[in-house]
Amino acid sequence: MRIIRILLPLFILFALVSSAFGQDQLLLTNGKIKKLRGAVVYYDYNDIFHQNDSQRKKMEASLAKEESKKKELRTTEKWQKNQERQAERLLKNEQKQLLKLEKLRKEFEANVKYKIATLSPADFEKWKTKELDAIKSAEMERELASRLSLQSESIEQENREARQRRKFTSTVNRAKVFSILRANQAEEVVYNADTLGYFGDGNAELEYGVEEMRMYIKGRQDGRKHSLHDLGIGFGVGLASSLVMTWTLDAFYGPIPPAISLIVLTVLPTKVNPKLQLSGGELQSQAYLDGYERSATGRKAWAFTVGSVAGLGIGTATALLSAPLLR
Fold it and tell me: What is the pLDDT confidence band of residue 20, given thresholds at 50, 70 and 90?
């Protein structure tokens, strides 16, 4: 009792603290909601990164430690000489590209009059286009090199943060997520419809769009509310099968009829539960019906399996106990 008295206030305090800090949730494409122990901090094309408070503190400490080491490194003579060599190399590359560009321009200007006199108008235009493209390519190469040198530090910083993010976050496959449900009740859709492949006629086979996926998710959620009357059906089939097979052939053959019935049950179409309060648009949506069918079929199979196993157990035991009385 003393332990309970000590732990109960701590548990209540932990619950209050946890509720004080909002936590994000993920609405999955199968209709389920995944609760996160923290918040989504980043997502890319493949993954969604979420981070709790402990991971965030560790990441900040790691970044601070790395930055401290970097500052110490900048004070060393080796680092300074390396920076000087790098600056000299960049300057040489800049001068080399500038000389190349000037050479192309001078050659073009020097050859224009000669080419006009010796080439046909069509051939001259081809030559002119080719030379101007070469000059433009050299200009773009020089400009790109200049931009990269200016952005190298920021790119390095982003790469370092990306490494730290992967190290101090948990990930969820983005393909399984429809939207992020923020702690402030805002929803951020991260689902992207994509092509699955191509049909025989060459047309792309597309996944559901955003609104269709919403209907599919609602169908998956409603399908999980499908009636469990198959539990009783499975129990009856399992009970009857075990009794008949045990009395006539052998208990070994008892599971065969329930297995066949289960296959037939999953193949048969599933009707939407009439007790669900639907607006009417759901029944007109193929995406909703697809989602409902998938969840409801799984629910039916589970209920029938549980019922048939229970029926087989009770029926087999009853048949074995009553077999001597029937002889």
Answer: very low
